[in-house]
Amino acid sequence: MKPADQFPSSFLCVPKPGESGSATARPPWPDELPRIADAFPDLKWTEPLHLRVLVVPATATLPERLVGVAALAEPVPGATEAALFLRIRPRFIDTPANDALLSEAVALAKAAGARTLITGQLSTPDPREPSLRRAGFASAEDGKSWRAVLS
Questions:
Q1: Torsion over CA: 22, 105, 121, 124 (sign)
Q2: pLDDT band at residue 99 using 50, 70 and 90 as cut-offs
Q3: What pTM does this model have?
């Protein structure tokens, strides 16, 4: 397994009214892990190697904010499927930032040797559907999960 700093990282400008800077998908910093646990209490995997966070940089009036998290389940040696935990704040769902976070999740799964990435428990209709489809996910036969075959 590669160290966390060797995984790909995406940087993407996402202008917001009244904000400058960009949203960034990156590995979490050690001091962010408690904030991640507070912001996303249903997150099961907190090993930094398998996490990516989406942050919006600080402005004059707002501190840097965690707005999303993607966590890959601890890979099982020899397994070809990986489970993905994905959460993003509602106002960032339909932005390029969400696509960047999904791209990071796919890169993590590929680096872990997975051939299929699965995320589930989505509502119908789900506002994340367009970005999941752009990232190569398709609705699974059970209708409750999304799967992406990784090349």
A1: positive
A2: confident
A3: 0.71
